[in-house]
Structure formats: structure tokens, C-alpha cells
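Pipeline run #58 for the internal structure catalog. This entry was flagged by the ingest filter as a single-chain record with no existing model, so it goes straight to prediction. Upstream metadata was stripped on purpose; only the residue string is passed forward. Reviewer on rotation: M.T. Logging verbosity set to normal.
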Amino acid sequence: MEWTGACYADTPTTEVRREIAASPERVWELVAGIGLMPTLSAELRSVEWLDGATSPATGARFLGRSEHESFGTWETTSYVVECEAPRVFAWAVENPERPSAVWRFSLRARDDGGTDLTQWMQLGPGRSGLSYAIDRMPEKEQKIVFVRMREFERNMAATLDAIKELAEGTRAAAERRGA
């Protein structure tokens, strides 16, 4: 994807797709299990449901704690804005009306019994940690956005690769073999 010229106010998006040889129900178990995500993420350190929630449902909230070498550590509250098992799980970060980001997993059943899994994200329109970097260096906004979007894309690809391995059982088999 080409990010040249994107500004934060443009609410740039990126997405990554994987074909997974597992049913949508199996893939759903993984993407809807938010406790798994910190083990797959380069930034997310922990998550916990809030208000007594124990699984995704529209309106449920969860707290995420993250860390990045350039941005430090931070916490966010996310709001589930779309949840339809086993098809879509989406959440808005901080403010569902004007989120700092929106994230979505979409699952589509394939004719062969497998699943097409897409992870999509949108930056903004609400302020985020990236906004503060842009405030300090407004002349570098496009570069800052470009670099961060590429970083999201790489991290999303790694997450989907790990979900694919888990869903297909290849990760567990490799770990049993000591690989």
C-alpha cells in the first residue's frame, strides 16, 4: 500500500489478510479471545475486560496496556463496536464517537471449510499518542504517519501469521517437536 502524503486527519487505514485452513468458529475462538493477543503482539502487554464482561459483545469495554520504544507505555480503554460471531469483531479505542483508532477482525467462510481472515485498522480521527509526536514535529507529519502505518501493517501480519499457525495446529506441533 502507498502511504506517501497521508496525514493523520486523513484517517489512514491498512489491512492484512490470510487464508486459514480452519473453520471460522475455530478462528473466532482465537480472535475473540483478547487474552491471547498480548502473546502475539509486539506492543500490547496486557488486556482485561471491564464492567464484568468476559467475552466480546457490542458495548463491552476492555483495558489494554501497551509499550513501544518510541512512545513509552500507555493504557487505553476500547469499546466493542461490532460483534457478530463468527464473522466480525471490532473495537474503537478511547472514544467510540471519535476514536484514536478502530480495529477489526473479519472472518469469511471459504467453500473448502477454511476461513479468510482480515485484520483492518484505521488511525484516528481522535487524538492518540501519535498526535503528540506530530505536534512536536508538524513538518514531519507525513513521514510519522507513514512509518507508523507500516509498523502496524508488519505487526498485523505477524499477528495473523500466529493466528493461522494456532488455528491450523502448526504452532502447537512445532512446539511439541521443539522447533
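catalog note: The two ends are 33 Å apart (CA to CA).
catalog note: The longest strand covers residues 72-84.
status: ready for reviewer M.T.
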